[in-house]
Specification:
heterodimer, A: alpha+beta, MetI-like fold, four-stranded antiparallel β-sheet, two-stranded antiparallel sheet, B: alpha/beta, D-Maltodextrin-Binding Protein, domain 2, 14 helices
């Protein structure tokens, strides 16, 4: 240090601002404070406004009777049940359509994605046109369109189409099917089913170790399918058909008895599945195209047959590309299910976030609940998909 | 720490954009009345072929605007669904609500609304296609019923079927316009809402004669306008405007003769007080002497508004019934202006 250099200490400001490391910390702290202030002020503002209107923040209304009816409830519910119970009915309806939608959209999406890669010009182009049409039209319009088609083009109740000689009917009020009533003996069928699954799992382990030791391959897939379907069927016949079917019959205005899939569920389920499938198809196509053709050639050169090449070489690698965007498609599907309100499907947005909100006027409380519910559903889906993604990730040695 | 919190609270309170302020001043400053109405119910509030809002509720909005601003056309109509109406009002987006809304205790006390005098006594009814051969609501066991969600009718329906021990399948729909295709396509057997709404919906059908309204009225639905709690002056303005229209019919003051009757004091002190020729009743509610005159001139008195929009001569064809003046066997009864 030279003698002419200033001996004055740099100011605190200079210390914090002109040092690169300190500065970045300061900026981050400032940004955090601004963020906290912003969200804090919004919450505080809402609370102050509610107080000013003389309406405290309270969830006590959840215990009150809901007083409205819900057509589709998978758990006991009547108009005397509480708003809380109505919320559960809504959550289950949301989960039902989300899970059913995820299953159907995955099957459709993978099929379409593969068709899109077909060498057959017509198949390829048809898949292309379908995907481009579906994913470029808002999903709400698909929902309304399918609901409109069901309600306007299917026959009225009195002229319902009779399927399978008086056991099932289809009309613009839905698909009416026989509903099962399980007799006590049915537990043996259930036991056979669980036993078959355990057997299949053990058999798979055995087959693997056998292959590792001797190289002999066993038909694991077919044995498992046979066991899982066959054993319960045998048990079913042996215990003397322990299911009573209740058939729907036309009485008065509607079909009574049996089970019904309502047009609202059908429209929402199909629309969400068809829409999401178009996106999944593109993910699948991208995933498959991402695998270098050399991989296939190398695999073939080693003498693996085509299906084994696909199962052991191409698909495991393609999945690594497909799964992360697939998760976000599943999340989209689950969240898009909130459009149910447009056609009167009683999901969680329509029950606690719709009717309960409106009848009690507790907008803030209801919306917070609905947001928390969607958050939990989405985080669960993400969690599962992240776990699956880790399972299939490239294991580097 | 305490001080910062206090400062923050003060700052935020200032930021908070609630409409706790003086609604009358706000409306005057804006030069326009924001009136919350339905998204479209023929006869009550719906835009006509030229895009002009017309209807029973609309005329009440115009009367208030005329009383306050001197011009019945200075109204901005805010269409609302059954679900959004109260939020629109309490958030301050609307100054007043005329949306065939049933007055109930919880809406008054819990949602913090002040209901104006009832301007239409309604009740919930059922509409069915004549082809069904139903003559009473008690015959509706097992029927599918289209119902607007988020309305009191939804609750009445649940209660009615429960107390009568009969079952039904609710088919929830969002707006009156969506009910129509679902009902006509047979998704539901029955459409239920206020009897006035049924008449309006039926009138808009291609073949209204193929449908009938069942005799049962299962609820009391006193339809009334509403304002927010906490602004008593604004409440008084709206309340007395509605009462002035009812009183005007009773006194025989119409949109046609109001100019003439208001020109000079006559023999009837009631008329003189209403039209600002005696006393200064306008000043009591922050307006001038001619407030009621303008309100009546805007769309006519109660009877004129009724007849023009929903009366027997219109497509809706609703009789006065309960909505006649108390002196004619109805229950409309305006408190005296004195």
């Amino acid at each position: 240090m030279s003698a002419t250099a200033s001996t004055a200490q740099p100011s605190l400001f200079a210390k914090l601002w002109y040092d690169k490391n300190n500065r970045s910390i300061v900026v981050q702290i400032l940004a955090t404070i601004v963020l906290i202030w912003f969200f804090g002020s919004m919450v505080l503002n809402a609370v102050i406004n509610l107080e000013a209107q003389g309406r405290g923040f309270s969830f006590a209304f959840l215990e009150q009777p809901a007083s409205y009816d819900i057509n589709q409830h998978l758990i006991p519910y009547s108009s005397r049940s509480s708003h809380l119970q109505a919320m559960w009915v809504g959550i289950i309806n949301t989960l039902l359509v989300a899970v059913a939608g995820i299953i159907l959209s995955t099957i459709l999406g993978f099929t379409l994605g593969v068709l899109r890669l077909s060498k057959n010009w017509l198949v390829n182009k048809l898949a292309y046109v379908y995907i481009e049409y579906v994913r470029n039209v808002p999903v709400l319009l698909h929902i309304l369109l399918i609901h409109g088609i069901i309600v306007h083009s299917l026959p009225r109740t009195k002229e319902a189409w009779n399927l399978l000689s008086d056991t099932a009917f289809i009309s613009n009020r839905g698909l009416f099917m026989p509903s099962p009533e399980f007799l006590p003996m049915f537990k043996f069928v259930l036991a056979a089913f669980i036993g078959a699954i355990v057997f299949a799992w053990l058999f798979r382990r055995f087959a693997r170790s056998l292959q590792a030791r001797t190289g002999t391959q066993l038909p694991v897939f077919w044995v498992s399918v046979l066991a899982i379907i066959g054993l319960p069927v045998i048990a079913f016949i042996a215990t003397g058909h322990p299911i009573n079917w209740e058939y729907p019959t036309l009485k008065g205005f509607n079909f009574q008895g049996g089970a019904v899939i309502r047009p609202e569920f059908l429209a929402l389920w199909l629309a969400l599945s068809l829409y999401t499938a178009a996106f999944i198809a593109e993910n699948v196509r991208a995933g498959i195209l991402a695998i270098d053709h050399g991989q296939t050639e190398a695999s073939m050169a080693l003498g693996l047959p085509r299906n084994r090449t696909l199962n052991l070489v191409v698909i495991p690698q393609a999945l690594r590309v497909i799964v992360p965007p697939l998760s976000s498609q599943y999340l989209n599907l689950a969240k898009n299910s909130s459009l149910a309100i447009a056609i009167g499907y009683m999901d969680v947005t329509a029950t606690i976030g719709g009717i309960s909100l409106n009848q009690t006027g507790r907008a803030m409380e209801c919306m917070i609940l609905v947001m928390a519910i969607y958050l939990i559903i989405s985080l669960t889906i993400s969690g599962i998909m992240n776990y699956y993604n880790k399972r299939i990730a490239l294991v580097e040695r | 720490m305490k001080k910062t919190l206090l400062a923050a609270t003060v700052a935020l309170t200032a930021m908070a954009t609630t409409a706790q302020a003086d609604t009358l001043e706000d409306v005057k400053a804006r030069g326009e009345l924001n009136c919350v109405v339905t998204t479209g119910l023929v006869g009550f509030a719906a835009p006509d072929a030229d895009g002009q809002w017309q209807g029973f509720d609309v005329d009440f909005c115009r009367a208030v605007a005329a009383a306050v601003l001197g011009d019945g056309s200075k109204v901005k109509f805010i269409p609302s669904t059954g679900k959004t109406r109260f939020t629109l009002l309490s958030s301050g987006e609307g100054d007043i609500l005329f949306r065939n809304t049933t007055e109930t205790m919880s809406r008054d006390a819990d949602l913090k609304l002040s209901f104006l005098p009832v301007n239409y006594y309604d009740g919930q009814g059922f509409m069915v296609p004549k082809a069904l051969g139903v003559s009473s609501a008690k015959d509706l066991d097992g029927a599918s019923i289209c119902i607007q969600t988020g309305t009191t009718t939804e609750l009445n329906l649940a209660d009615y079927f429960r107390t009568n021990g009969i079952s039904y399948e609710p088919v929830p729909i969002e707006t009156n316009e969506e009910a129509r295709p679902n009902y006509l396509a047979g998704r539901c057997d029955v459409y239920t809402t206020d009897a006035s709404g049924l008449a309006a919906t039926r009138a808009a059908f291609e073949n209204p004669d193929e449908h009938m309204v069942l005799p049962e009225i299962i609820s009391k639905e006193p339809l009334a306008g509403a304002v927010r709690h906490g602004d008593d002056l604004w409440f008084d303005i709206a309340k007395w405007t509605v009462l002035a229209l009812i009183a005007a019919e009773e006194m025989g003051i119409t949109s046609e003769n109001v100019e003439e009757m208001g020109a000079a004091a006559g023999d009837n002190p009631n008329v003189n007080r209403l039209l600002g020729l005696e006393g200064d009743f306008g000043a009591m509610i922050g307006l001038d002497k001619q407030w009621a005159m303008r309100a009546i001139a805007a769309g006519g008195n109660y009877g004129e508004i009724f007849d023009k929009n929903i009366g027997p001569e219109t497509a809706l064809g609703i009789e006065r019934g309960l909505n006649a003046q108390w002196s004619d066997g109805g229950i409309l009864y305006a408190a005296p202006i004195r």
